[in-house]
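Methods — Computational structure assignment.
A single polypeptide chain was analysed. Its primary sequence is given first, followed by the predicted tertiary structure written as structure tokens.
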Amino acid sequence: MTGFGKAEVLVNGIKIIVEIRSLNSKQLDISTLKIPMAYKEKEQDIRNKLSQNIQRGKVDFYINIEKEADTASAPTINRDVFKSYYEQIKSISAELNIPIENEPLIRTIVKLPEIFTSQVQSINDEELDALSNCVDLAISSLDDFRNQEGKITENDLLSKVEKIKELLIQVSPYEAERIETTRTRITENLNKLGNDVSKDMNRFEQELIYYMEKFDINEEKVRLTNHCKYFIDTLNESEPVGRKLGFITQEMGREINTLGSKANHLQIQKIVVQMKDELEKIKEQLLNVL
């Protein structure tokens, strides 16, 4: 959801510049909306445009105006206010016997509130239409930026899901090894008891079956494979899928955790750790998905 959009429109010697910046956020948050006073009446319309076109993200919105030299109107000094400030300062200076110099005093006065006034020019329909068009163009520019970033993010997500699927395949060679290791360990422990102790081979096989069932991870492998496929299918949908993908990654995480708890094998544990690492990277990237 990170993006930047900018548009410029020239109308009646006035250049309207609209900039939109967006950062990751679970909901739409128009955190900054800076609009020149002349366009304040259009603020609600602008908010509605942003809400309708930007579904999620922390948004900063700016409108700037640049006027040509012959159309720009210089601010005017408010003479009455200037005189009032001047007389008050002179009176206080005389009362407190503080000498004043005119030049520094003038520099001080012009910095005081309400010294300058500007003529507010009426905004015609042509300029308001240009403003609306400029906002639309900036939103379109933001969408283009997001689409480009989205394609990069999509490819990255796909590569990480494929990596999890590859890691899952690497688990298979160690499954049979676990059962054989368990059989050998139990047999060795029985042999250590000596020939004086009778051995019930039926019970031995029952115990072995118990361990095989306890270590069986086929169900988790099937479910994780299905979750990966569902993730990829969902990623290809045209509608916003960010939250949906987040739920799917939660299910993927459950299966990976169960694999780890049932592993009982060093190499499988290492593979599970790699899966978790890829899954965390996916979760981080999902912050950029609508």
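Note: The CA atoms of residues 108 and 181 lie 89 Å apart.
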